[in-house]
Amino acid sequence: MTARALRLHLRARGVPRFGAGLILVTVFAGVAAQWLATRPFFDGPGARVPVVALAPLLAALLLAGTLAGADESLERVTPVRWRLVRAAHVGAATVLVALLLAATGLHDPAVYGSYALVRNTLGCTGLVAGAAVLIGARLAWLPAFAYVVTVYGASPARDGGWENLWAWPLQPSTAGWSWAPALAACAAGAVLYVRWGARG
Amino acid sequence: MIGRILRIELRHGSAALAALATAVGLTWVLVANPAQWVGQWGGLAVYLRMCLLVLCPLFLAAGAWQAGRDRRARTVELLGTVPRPAWHPMLTGWAAVTLGGLCGLALPLLVAAAMTARLATYAGPGWWGPLPTVPIGLAAASALGVLIGRRFPGRFTAPVAGLALYVGLALPAYFPDSRWAVLSPATDEFRSYVLWPASFHTWQAAWLGLLAAVFLLLATRRWWAAVVPAALAGTLLVALPPDEPAEDPGALALVCTERAPRVCVTRINEFLLPDVDAVLRPGLERLAGIPGTPVEAVEENARRPGGHRPGTAWFSLLDQATLTGGVARRDWLETTFRSSLGDDGCPPPPDSTGDPVEDASWRTELAAFLWMEGDPPPELTALPGQRQREWIGRVFAASRACDRAELARLALS
């Protein structure tokens, strides 16, 4: 893929818009996390739960728009190694989102900071990539959105045990088992997407 | 004519999806926090207003999804050839998703009302006051969704705008003293035992209704027509509601067990009394006959600042009711009761380390609490029975009097 083709490909997938949205989300996450962590009436960095839950979700929602072109079937007849392109696309986007969001939680990273942001980024992008394969990129945002919002709505119910598994987006990063579903979603979503691509 | 489009929209548009989403959303938040509403009519009305934190974003997303449909389906030009004002389909689309969403709320609400009716022991005057604002607030949210969806018809507008509204509605919770919080339909300022005057609810309904009108007029690009409701809404902003909320004495009246030692709950929590009594009675009976210790346990909601009652221990029923009307966390209920035995809002001792090994007063209190739990330390069991009870009485009395020196003197070793 030449540099021009790459540029056209990225533009066709709406990557500039995704980049602008991602910058907004990062700035918002950074400001909100800083504000929440410095309020005297909260318990310091532990008050950053809303940012940890919602910022990776927002970034993943924006990513969903870039996972398919205007006409997938037409694209696939072109002599391009699409699996490689898809792997690079989803891999680079996940790493970029994770790095940017992690930078917003560097202060006390273990208490609802960088580590939890990275975990949730991996989980949310995995959910979105998997959904793009199963139900198409148009509605790929729906499962991750519904899942995280539902778990967030039930936040009073979280206190260890099974909650580590089903409510992983809200667990502290020190809860080891909360990483398992996030990593599983990330691996499954990435493998599905790289192998089959978004449903046309 | 509009009625026919509305029927078609209701049957074939996003209304069914909106109904499903709001039904699932409301069911989920009701099940997630039963303690807020089970058994209390006032609690149900108030909690529904808190649920708007989740429901408003859903209605906004539904409105945005509906409004962007024609552009996503690339039928704008085709529909433009129809000799019908552009605001007709837009207004019917908004009405359809709003009605659909409201219908979706009906079933979980009816179930919640039936569950509340089974247990409720009190319905204060005007407990339903916060309810009429609910559909108006939701209609305003879907109107905002229509406005956003017309401007940005993309596929990701609905979820992103929904999340943004969620964050926006959650913001006032971080500014508890702000008087601007009354502008939001979703508020956590309400309590099931506090009555807000009718003028306040009317003000909020008028504000949100005008907001909905402004959003819809802006969505149809009738800029000048939007000025009128916007100006009216502006005047409401200048004249924030003056009336203050007042506690409902009927809701906070105490209902007690007949046999001594008494256990009392407020009238809105009467359905929990048998369970609370079963949990706290053993502890109260353990204290019976010890001078200076409480002879009754009373729910904390009835406690007034400065109202010191030496014979009373307090307990909290916060987040305690389960869906079936029982007590959710018996150990926590007991903990709040026990900690009130030795606490009367004392300031933290300045030079204390909080370590029972170094601090004799802490050691004394710890021994008394272990005795309450039925696991007294050996140095206490070494005393004869009557001496043990006298010692316990003096410890709790000193503890409630914030007398750290006396507590240190009472140390057993």
Automatic annotation (TrEMBL), chain A:
Segments passing through the bilayer: 20-37, 49-70, 82-106, 112-134, 139-157, 177-196
Keywords from the UniProt entry: Membrane, Transmembrane, Transmembrane helix
Positions in coiled-coil regions: none
Protein name: ABC transporter permease
Organism: Actinoplanes flavus
Top-level taxonomy: Bacteria, Bacillati, Actinomycetota, Actinomycetes, Micromonosporales
From TrEMBL, chain B:
Protein's name in the database: Uncharacterized protein
Key words, A-Z: Membrane, Transmembrane, Transmembrane helix
Protein species of origin: Actinoplanes flavus
Ranges annotated as spanning the membrane: 12-32, 44-65, 94-115, 127-149, 156-175, 195-218
Region of interest (Disordered), ranges: 339-358
Superkingdom of source: Bacteria
